[in-house]
Design a protein that fits this description.
The protein is an alpha/beta fold and 507 residues long. It is globular.
Length: 507
């Protein structure tokens, strides 16, 4: 009987690239069982050895970089220079950080107990077990391998289902993992459609990580709740940039150009909505219009272009419909606004001048090359438009007076807030990402993200054995311990009265 196949098509041409063997939903529990059997030996491997294997994998990925970049261009649709600069190089840096810093971060801790001085406690950071990853099409290499590597270093086995729209680069990454000595069942890449992804919460995983849409994230969260499977979600950003009245228009325009159209706008951290002081609106819009009009769009495998294809046809339709609705409502489309003629999922980079902060072209995440500018008269309005959004991922503030800009940024209720910069914090492996509100749950990246891939376990030992009547103050010994308890209570009260009072003034 022939196995099911997953067709993979080019977003640039629409032609069939290849077909991959598909994992059926009913086969997933066996994949998890294989991973669980292999995970026991992997977790028993010293963390230094696990780090060494990941280092070898990193070396293989670096050596095969040209192939990986080519696969990203054909599979995802992004230009090759973006594939290298925005995906491959940050991944190599992240793996380098994990290999160097991870073993120390995962080392056992011995806290100094406040009272139980006769006991010694060890906090171990134990592997979760088997981790399931559901990864997106926008950064199919960077996100999948970074999250997988953190779980692997912690001692877990990993089963990854990449997006059906961009799976080829993960197929090659899995081959390189095997060449680097990672056990095949410890790191598995499986291919399938949305039905396979929907089966993950009931397949027996010990943890799930999902990066994708809010709609699918909510479905997974409901299903994971039935099995009490820990779940980490990164669900998108529709990220905002606030241009203050004293902003440097040229610098701000260049930042929006980069942040809004890198990866054809397919970035949760990308600049999607701009709130600009009305006094600078005309100047900023003209600077953006000129720059965006010069951007080129085309097949990344044929010529050098600024923007490639959107990965799915559905994104093109969503951008087209949102821009058409904005135009029908009387808002100006200053440049772009249409798909390119001919085959492929191409959409012209677009700038929308919109004076309605509640219009869907502003509030919805389009995940495409569309930037919307909204004027404000009062900075309090701009602040509320950012914070009242259901999204809580990233935001950017631009102003010449950095102290004033930093003060405004401090009021933004977002996971990442940058002053005078865009996007960069995502590719810093030391920095945690903990989305807020509808942008997700949990934490990835940084020391916090690595430790979140573990479960803390406490082991306690005796330094000194106390007399049984003291050590185990049960009902029979309660009267004997009453004087001790009274003395300890008085001592705690004394310590409380001598403790320095906290100041109500914020430093």
């Amino acid at each position: 009987m022939s196995r099911a196949r997953l067709p993979v098509t080019s977003p640039s041409t629409g032609r069939l690239l290849t077909e991959l063997p598909a994992c059926l939903p009913q086969e997933l529990p066996e994949r998890v069982a294989r991973a669980r059997r292999a995970q026991r030996d992997w977790a028993a491997t010293p963390v230094a050895t696990r780090a060494e294997r990941l280092g070898l994998w990193r070396t293989r990925l670096a050596s095969d970089g040209e192939t990986l970049v080519r696969l990203l261009a054909s599979d995802n649709g992004k230009p090759t220079r973006e594939a290298q600069l925005h995906e491959l190089l940050p991944l190599l840096d992240a793996l380098d950080w994990l290999v160097q810093q991870g073993p120390e971060l995962l080392a056992n801790e011995q806290p100094d107990a406040r009272w139980l001085k006769h006991r010694r406690h060890v906090i171990e950071h134990r592997a979760r077990g088997v981790v399931g990853l559901l990864t997106p099409f926008n950064f199919p290499l960077l996100i999948a391998i970074y999250d997988a590597a953190a779980a692997l270093l912690a001692g877990s086995a990993v089963v990854v289902k990449p997006s059906q729209h961009a799976p080829l680069v993960l197929e090659r990454a899995a081959e390189l993992a095997r060449e680097a000595g990672l056990p095949p069942d410890v790191f598995q890449v499986i291919f399938g459609d949305s039905e396979l992804g929907a089966a993950f919460p009931s397949a027996g995983f010990d943890e799930l990580l999902f990066t994708g849409s809010q709609r699918v994230g909510r479905l997974l969260a409901r299903a994971a709740a039935e099995t009490l499977t820990p779940l980490t979600l990164e669900l998108g950003g529709n990220s905002a940039l606030v241009a203050l009245p004293d902003c440097d228009v040229t610098r701000t325009a260049e930042a929006i150009l980069f942040g809004g159209f890198a990866n054809s706008g397919q970035s949760c951290f990308g600049v999607a909505r701009v709130y600009v002081a009305r006094s600078r609106q005309a100047e900023l819009l003209e600077a953006l219009r000129e720059r965006i009009a010069r951007l080129t769009v085309g097949d990344p495998e044929h010529g050098s272009h600024d923007l490639g294809a959107l990965t799915t046809a559905a994104q093109v339709e969503r951008c087209e419909q949102a821009v058409a609705a904005a135009k029908a409502a009387g808002h100006r489309i200053l440049v772009g606004g249409t798909r390119l003629p001919g085959p492929g999922n191409f959409f012209f980079p677009t700038l929308v001048d919109c004076d309605d902060p509640l219009h869907p072209v502003v509030t919805d995440e389009l995940f495409g090359p569309v930037v919307t500018c909204v004027p404000y008269d009062d900075e309090a309005n701009a602040l509320s438009w950012v914070n009242d959004s259901p999204f809580g991922l990233a935001g950017y503030v631009f102003g010449r007076e950095l102290e004033r800009a930093a003060s405004f940024a401090d009021q933004l209720e977002l996971a990442h807030v940058l002053v005078d910069d865009v996007l960069s914090s995502y590719v810093c492996p030391e920095l945690p990402l903990a989305p807020r509100r509808a942008s997700g749950l949990g934490v990835v990246h940084g020391a916090a993200g690595l430790l979140a891939r573990t479960t803390p376990r406490v082991l306690g030992y005796s330094r000194l054995s106390l007399p049984t009547s003291v050590q185990f103050g049960g009902p029979r010994n309660a009267r004997l311990l009453e004087p001790v308890a009274e003395l300890l209570t008085r001592f705690q009260t004394f310590r409380r009265s001598k403790a320095p009072r906290s100041s109500s003034t914020k430093e």
